[in-house]
Amino acid sequence: MKSKPVQKPYWEMTTAELAEATQEFDKPFVAGTFKPLTPEMRARWERAKRKVGRPKQGCGVQVISVSVERDLLARSDALARRMGLSRAALISRGLKAVLTAQEPGA
């Protein structure tokens, strides 16, 4: 697919530049110029329509509800911020550390 030449933003254009940049929208019945999508274009369209969603981690994720003391939660949130992690990432790291420590032979 051809890329358009780089142009400055519409709000920085003069009236003449803006008229030239938007002249394609002044044509009537532009729907008559459309063609069916090629298989490549159809695939790109389907990818663009898909919802983004979360990236897969391991075998996927399961959302759970857990009760935690407020003070412990506040301390863990502060630690996660200092470490540059999300709350979920910090909890995940903690669970992995405990599970690794409890595994037989460890």
Written overview of the protein:
By secondary structure, this protein is mainly alpha-helical. It has a domain at 70-102. Helices cover 45% and strands 0% of the residues. It contains 4 helices and no strands. It has helices at 15-21, 39-49, 70-83, 87-102. Helix 3 crosses helix 4 (87-102). The longest helix is centred in the C-terminal third of the chain and has 16 residues, at 87-102. It is elongated and about 70 Å long. The mean pLDDT is 87.
What is the helix tally?
4
Uncertain spans: none
Which descriptor suits the 3D outline?
elongated
- What percent of residues are in strands? under 5%
Number of DSSP-assigned strands: 0
User: How confident is the prediction overall: mean pLDDT?
Assistant: 87
Q: SS-based structural class?
A: mainly alpha
The string of secondary-structure elements, in order, is HHHH
Give the end-to-end Cα distance, rounded to a whole number of Å: 55 Å
Helix content: 40-55%
**Computed Rg:** 26 Å
Q: What's the story with the biggest beta sheet?
A: none
